[in-house]
Design the sequence.
């Protein structure tokens, strides 16, 4: 029923005021002020540094979905997708007739401000579900208890290192139905979350075939997803990964938004019971087979090796810069580069003529006395 609706062109609902990797409260606040009257915006509390933590509530349906983004401040792709989703729902309101949505767009505004995973007290909020030592953690738990959701969506972003299994396909989107216990039992709650992921994967395979994976389901009762799942609420982890060449995560935001729509239409039109969860188990696990750049077959200290480069994300002004860092100097069989070059046996050195070493941050290397740029194009 919903497939034709999902063909709505992305440019008709994309939130144009949000772009790139750096998304903060100051960027979403003007958008919150412009939301229509049928959308309720509240301040549920404040962060360690007293920044407002907003909650958006919309819809009138009986099925209640709680979702939160930027629990890790530097994982902003899903925040962009949430505002795209809100725009979409204003034009396609059928979901809102069946569901009520409670959305926390930036749970960790202090981390978002300085572009870091942790909050201002250097705590990982996704390891604070039991201690509830941080105001942001307590706020999320209070929203959970007050809203009484039927489903939870835990929205994150993952690094460029992730592959679909041990293949040369990057994991553009990854999902997880978190475990409830050490034995990772297939409880009914978990199976319902699995069924929802299967529904998303079925549609996504038509768009990004063989580029959807499952995140590791090792149990940690300190993780929010594991904690909410164990309280009997089907919880899905969304991980926005790397689409080839898309370091600003603009293509990925569209795909995450698409996945959210599939999930919400499925919830609105189906009584999920955990059927078909076996198909979830057939989705490949995340591997860690990617580097951003690999220069293969270069001479280094008398040996033929490969050079592995990973981009380090640094906040400069109001944008994220990608700084090339040497992370591996060895044969990289079994690894894949988002970009790969063949050094053809050439000698490789730093720009000052010194030997490369792991940890070097350099925008270029010398190959047989020729400059070789590592800058992200």
Sequence:
């Amino acid at each position: 029923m919903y497939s034709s609706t999902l063909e709505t062109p992305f440019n008709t609902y994309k939130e144009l005021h949000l772009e790139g990797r750096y998304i903060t409260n100051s960027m979403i606040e003007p958008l919150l002020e412009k939301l229509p009257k049928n959308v309720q915006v509240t301040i549920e509390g404040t962060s360690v540094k007293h920044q407002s933590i907003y909650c958006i509530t919309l819809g009138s349906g009986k099925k209640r979905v709680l979702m939160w983004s930027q629990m890790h401040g530097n994982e902003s792709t899903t925040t962009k997708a949430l505002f795209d989703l809100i725009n979409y729902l204003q034009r396609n309101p059928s979901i809102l007739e069946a569901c009520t949505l409670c959305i926390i767009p930036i749970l960790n505004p202090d981390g978002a401000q300085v572009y870091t995973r942790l909050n201002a007290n250097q705590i990982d909020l996704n390891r604070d579900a039991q201690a509830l030592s941080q105001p942001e953690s307590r706020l999320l738990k209070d929203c959970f208890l007050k809203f009484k959701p039927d489903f939870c969506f835990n929205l994150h972003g993952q690094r460029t290192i992730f592959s679909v299994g041990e293949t040369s396909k990057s994991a553009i989107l990854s999902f997880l139905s978190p475990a409830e216990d050490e034995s990772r039992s297939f409880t009914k709650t978990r199976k319902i979350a699995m069924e929802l992921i299967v529904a998303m994967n079925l549609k996504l395979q038509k768009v990004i075939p063989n580029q959807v994976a499952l995140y590791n389901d090792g149990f940690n009762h300190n993780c929010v997803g594991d904690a909410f799942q164990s309280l009997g609420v089907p919880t899905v982890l969304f991980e926005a990964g790397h689409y080839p060449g898309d370091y600003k995560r603009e293509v990925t935001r569209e795909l995450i938004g698409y996945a959210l729509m599939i999930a919400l239409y499925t919830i609105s039109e189906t009584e999920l019971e955990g059927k078909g969860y076996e198909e979830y188990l057939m989705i490949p696990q995340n591997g860690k087979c990617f580097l951003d750049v690999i220069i293969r077959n270069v001479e280094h200290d008398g040996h033929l090796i490969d050079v592995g480069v990973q981009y380090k994300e640094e906040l400069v002004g109001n944008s994220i810069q990608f700084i090339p860092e040497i992370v591996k100097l060895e044969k990289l069989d079994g690894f894949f580069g988002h970009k790969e070059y063949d050094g053809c046996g050439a000698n490789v050195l730093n720009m000052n003529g010194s030997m490369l070493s792991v940890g070097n941050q350099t925008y270029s290397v010398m190959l047989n006395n020729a400059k070789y740029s590592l800058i992200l194009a």
Q: What stands out?
A: The longest helix spans residues 250-269. The domain at 290-373 is CATH 2.30.40.10 (Urease, subunit C; domain 1).
